């Protein structure tokens, strides 16, 4: 009788473990995309609205709080570029590329900044980098190629 109860107890534990396993395994395989901070979202919205002061304000907070966030560095560079603060724009694009050398947006925006400052040779270097990274068909390559072609 004792062996029967022991066997029944072990079987019950086994069944319980099987019933719980799918839920545990399902949670383990789920990967949630990283959520942006409120300041990143506010900064990105300000960029879309072309409110460069607000973009710089919020994205500077993100860049300080998340120094490894290449997207924040890139957007901060973009906001500075649109304020015509090219030194700061190049600084943040450079940081984005240091963090992620394959960052397509940073290559495009830095290349466009070089076009705006009259340095087509450096813009061409970023165009070549984009060609290596994503080919001539990617949007970033096409946008930078157009900017270079339209430059005087």
Polypeptide structure, described:
Helix content is 79%, strand content 0%. The protein has eight helices and no strands. Helix 2 runs parallel beside helix 4 and helix 6 runs parallel beside helix 8. The chain is globular.
Which labels suit this protein?
about 150 residues; mainly alpha; 2 domains
Largest sheet: none
What is the mean predicted local confidence, pLDDT?
Answer: 85
Kindly estimate the percentage of residues that lie in beta strands according to DSSP. Answer: under 5%
User: What would CATH call the class of the largest domain?
Assistant: Mainly Alpha
Provide the helix percentage: over 70%
H/E series: HHHHHHHH
Span between N and C termini?
95 Å
Number of strands: 0
CATH fold-level topology of the largest domain: Serine Threonine Protein Phosphatase 5, Tetratricopeptide repeat
Give the name of the CATH superfamily of the largest domain: Tetratricopeptide repeat domain
**Radius of gyration computed on alpha carbons:** 25 Å
Low-confidence stretches: 13-33
How would you describe the shape? globular
The total domain count is: 2
Q: What is the number of helices? A: 8
């Amino acid at each position: 009788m004792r062996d029967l109860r022991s066997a029944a107890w072990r079987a019950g534990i086994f069944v319980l473990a099987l019933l719980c396993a799918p839920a545990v395994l399902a949670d383990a395989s789920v990967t949630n995309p990283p959520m942006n901070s409120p300041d990143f979202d506010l900064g990105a919205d300000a960029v879309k609205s072309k409110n460069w002061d607000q973009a710089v304000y919020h994205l500077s907070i993100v860049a300080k709080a998340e120094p490894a966030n290449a997207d924040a560095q890139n957007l901060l560079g973009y906001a500075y570029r649109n304020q015509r603060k090219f030194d700061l724009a190049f600084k943040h694009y450079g940081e984005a590329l240091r963090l992620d050398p394959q960052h397509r947006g940073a290559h495009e925006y830095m290349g466009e900044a070089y076009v705006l400052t009259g340095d087509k040779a450096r813009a061409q270097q970023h165009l070549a980098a984009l060609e290596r990274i994503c080919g001539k068909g990617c949007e970033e390559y096409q946008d930078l190629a157009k900017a270079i072609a339209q430059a005087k």
